[in-house]
């Protein structure tokens, strides 16, 4: 099998195109917390646009919040990040105040690892509401967003992954995730495509 050049754009892998079905979709906003504000702020306007488009189409919006309560829930993250964790109850653990939560009573999922599905009850919450598709946004593209997207796919959800309302520490990592997901797990979307589709 031929190896692609490292400069290959994710668009070369985006051979499958589809639009979300508002009747069975949910928007996942991953870890838009104060801790990640530096990388989250550049995508904030695109994320707010995505939230607005989903609300307009009556798509439920679900926020995730990553934090740790005790060493029993650190797992491998403590070793991997050398103790640099987000601790529950701190200002850093809170969702960014700029998020469009307003009067809406959006569901918030607390998690302590990369996946929003692992030990959170999210799968049951979605299935009880007839959700068959998820639109993934937030941070970090290559960690919590990618892991959540892959798990959603493996659990039988159709996955849509935002190219312009996700972010991580550098463009190379962001692009690598988009390539992987377009190749094997997710339909890619952006604000313009969602605006036309919903």
UniProtKB/TrEMBL annotation:
Signal peptide: none
Keyword Hydrolase among UniProt keywords: yes
Entry keywords, A to Z: Hydrolase
GO MF, one annotated term: nicotinamidase activity
Domain Isochorismatase-like: from-to ranges: 25-190
Keyword field contains Transcription regulation: no
Matching InterPro entries: Isochorismatase-like_dom, Isochorismatase-like_hydrls, Isochorismatase-like_sf
Catalytic activity, EC: 3.5.1.19
Enzyme class: hydrolase
UniProt-listed Pfam families: Isochorismatase (PF00857)
Superkingdom assignment: Eukaryota
Similarity-based family: Belongs to the isochorismatase family.
Name used for this protein in its record: Putative nicotinamidase
Record organism: Rosa chinensis (China rose)
């Amino acid at each position: 099998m031929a190896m692609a050049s490292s400069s290959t754009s994710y668009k070369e892998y985006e051979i499958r195109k589809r639009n979300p079905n508002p009747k069975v979709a949910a928007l996942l906003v991953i870890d838009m917390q104060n801790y990640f504000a530096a990388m989250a702020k550049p995508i904030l306007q695109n994320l707010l646009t995505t939230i607005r488009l989903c609300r307009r189409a009556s798509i439920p919006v679900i926020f995730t919040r990553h934090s740790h309560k005790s060493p029993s829930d650190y797992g491998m993250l403590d070793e991997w990040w050398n103790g640099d964790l987000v601790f529950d109850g701190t200002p850093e653990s809170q969702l960014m105040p700029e998020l469009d939560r307003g009067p809406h009573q959006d569901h918030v999922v607390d998690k302590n690892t990369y996946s929003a599905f692992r030990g959170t009850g999210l799968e049951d919450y979605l299935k009880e509401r007839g959700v068959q598709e998820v639109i993934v946004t937030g941070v970090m593209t290559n960690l919590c967003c990618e892991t959540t997207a892959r798990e959603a796919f493996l659990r039988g959800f159709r996955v849509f992954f935002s190219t312009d309302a996700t972010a991580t520490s550098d463009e190379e990592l962001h692009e690598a995730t988009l390539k992987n997901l377009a190749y094997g797990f997710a339909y890619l979307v952006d604000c313009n495509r969602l605006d036309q589709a919903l």
